Amino acid sequence: MQSPAAPWGSPRTPSPRPASRTSSSRTTEQTPLLARDDRSDHAQQEAPRSPATASLLRTLSGSSSKPFWKTRWPSILALAVLCVAVVAILLGFLAAEGIDEYAMQAADFRPTRLALDGLAAQGARVRIEGDFTMDASKVNRQGVRNIGRLGTWIAREAETGPFDAHLSLPEYGNVLVGTAHIPSIKVNIRNGHTTHISLVASVKPGSPDGIRNVANDYIDGRLGQIRVQGTAEVPVRSGLINVGKHLVEQSMVFNGGDMPALPHYNITKLNIREANKGRKGMGADASIVVVNDFPVEITLPPVGVDVLIDGCSSDKQVFVGTAETADIVVKPKTDIQVNVTGNVEHLSDSLTEVCPKSAKSPLDAFIGEYIKGEDATIYINCCTFPDPNTPDWARDLLKDITVPVPFTGKEMGNMVKNFTMANMHFSLPDPFAEPGTPEASPKISAVVNVDVGLPAEMNFPLDVNQIKADADIFYKGKKLGNMDLRKWQKANSTRLDAHGKEGPSLLVQSEIKNAPIEILDDDLFSQVVQALLFGGGKPIMLDMKALVSIGVDTPMGKFAIRGIPAKGTVPVKPPHHEGGNDLKSRMAALNIRVGNLSIIGTTPTSITMQVYVNMTNPSNYSATVPYLSINILVNGTVLGQALIKDMHVKPGNNTNLIATALWDPFTNSGLKGRAVGSEMLSQYISGFNTSVTLQAHNGTIPAQPGLSHLMSKYPITLPAPHLSQPKPPTDGDGDGDDDGDDKGDEKDHFIQSTTMHLISSTATFTLNSPFHSTTMFITHLNATAYYKDDPAGQILYDLPFAVPPGLSESPRIPVHWTLGGIGYDAVRNALGGHLKLAAFAHVGFRIGEWHERIWFRGGQIGANIRL
């Protein structure tokens, strides 16, 4: 006789029996004569089960998310016992040589309905319907086929009395799965005749602990194969002939690949909302359609489960919330509509805390997989039954069983729609930071705006209160560097409702402070600088790809969602100015002016000066410079350094910026440097148009040698500051010069005017010191006065005298007149009046410990002639 799991469809062509299912029988005194024999002379064995048969087994495994032995075991048990009964009928009446082989191959049972009629205190009532047919064409050997047709034509019908069938698992210590009481069954066993069978079996579950052990092995993937054995003592009769009771044993082996799989399902509706009144946290409503291709009819009672997700370790799950279903009505071959209501009261620390050796919490990992469209996994811990009428055996059978269920993610593309920055402020690194550390990187402060797209199903209050990100910066597709926002920054958010095709979104705004920027490609950064300086005034576009983390406040409590992928483009505008785009024009746009020099330190070879700087920042960005060292060059020779400490530059006009200049030609460039420095000072004191070049070097920013080298490619040449009457830095622009209020060239001269006394042959000078608060000394003076290129007198004076800040008058200095000369005659003729003289002098200066000798040339010096 054919195995109980015979196909439901068209007749089957005999073929070798699959290795995954085997049947066995035991011969006793009560065993029918047609018991199955596995003799070697059988040329053909039982045909393989069709796909419909395998589908039936999967159907009986359950149309919900649980394996077959969890929710449909009464149906399986009933069907298995029914098949055992059919085998018993045939074995009891077909007791001739060869008839057993005929019975095994010709019998065909096709279930048409499997329904749960109700639950009882001790078990369940299961209705089974199907069609039983004997099909001789499926028998392989002609002799067996002929004998079988004759024997069944004589017997015509067979009938069993009521009996109990037991289903057990031999490899699990013969644990009893369940017992079914089968009523009397009568079938027509003639070839080609079909008998419709309809019966109600009472099914009683076996050992709950044993069933749970098998279920857990299956869920954990430890169940390589399982053998299910059915045993029954079946009373058989045909007409008035009582054959007696026959012991029937039938077993089936399921390999791992034959185990029933979870049915396909589709979430058609998901709404996440605030919890209903009287409950805490958030609620969720979901509608799930489960594909049901099987002839199963059952009504499942309401059930509640705990929902869990993977924890920090792979073998540990973390509780999230609960879910409940109403009654679930399953109809044959009809998709099942399941309505689920969930509730999450609060999020535990184990759910939201970052896992060891990881940057994410269990909740982060789950949400990250979901929003990327990947399959996440949720775990259903079964079960509670809200209906008090649910029998205790059902509660005992299903409790403490956890089933993993794939949870298909929803691809959201870029959940962060836009990522922009405004009001950017740049800071150079700490000069004493270790290179390669975050402290050694330039820093940026800005207002960050993030537009986060929200899924339409999220309908609950959501407030973002903090944000952080790790962003990579790209220029023309190449990675320029990265911006480190690993520290949480305060944030606020505004929900934007859906409009048009755009769904709802959350506009998050945060003011970040001092986020380090690490430049990874100096050559690419050089291209960025060049594009800003010489790009025709067009902004450059920097692409940013970031992993954004946000801290949110929800009805469940506060928690963080980490690692949300985001990307955006940040335009960087170049300095705005009138004029050309060459370096000279752009440097001119800075309009740097220096004044109010003061000496703050000296050595025998150096002077340290403090100056006030006015400049125009043509960009829209502000910057803070904690430390900057720039070489001062004259004609390519390094004479000193300009130092900037803690300088803040804002967009537009900047006044009273303080810088320090170290003048030390000998230390920087030796004797050549001293000579170049002396010449430069001579021209400077004489009021010539002198200039200095400011150029970065490898130590400009000690913590960033690469950036320093890049800056060295862009030297800046500036005019030396005017020698003007020092003024306090409160005159408007703070440069301390006269701002054009003085007329003529006299304001630029060291010697403003002189008074000559003819009788005493002396002269006094009005001197203009370039220093704001420092007194200098003239230690040597060898000067000649000229009138129209003719000498008028000479001064040779070696007594030091002081030159205090601002305008001062020298002591009377002896003058040796050039008697008889044209120059002297001009002086004498101007007695009591005013005369314009020129002068050339070699002068020795001393300021503190520093001393230097320079030359001085003055033209059109106003000389007052007195007796």
UniProtKB/TrEMBL annotation:
Residue intervals of the Tag1-like fourth Ig-like domain: 594-706
A cellular component term, taken from the record's GO annotations: fungal-type vacuole membrane
Biased composition (Low complexity): 18-28
Tag1-like fifth Ig-like domain sequence ranges: 745-855
Stretches the record annotates as Disordered: 1-57, 718-748
One Pfam family this sequence matches: LEA-2_4
Assigned keywords, A-Z: Membrane, Transmembrane, Transmembrane helix
Bilayer-crossing regions: 76-96
Ranges for domain Tag1 C-terminal: 458-573
Bias kind Acidic residues: ranges: 732-743
Domain of life: Eukaryota
Start-end of Basic and acidic residues biased regions: 35-44
Protein name as catalogued: Uncharacterized protein
Species of origin: Ampelomyces quisqualis
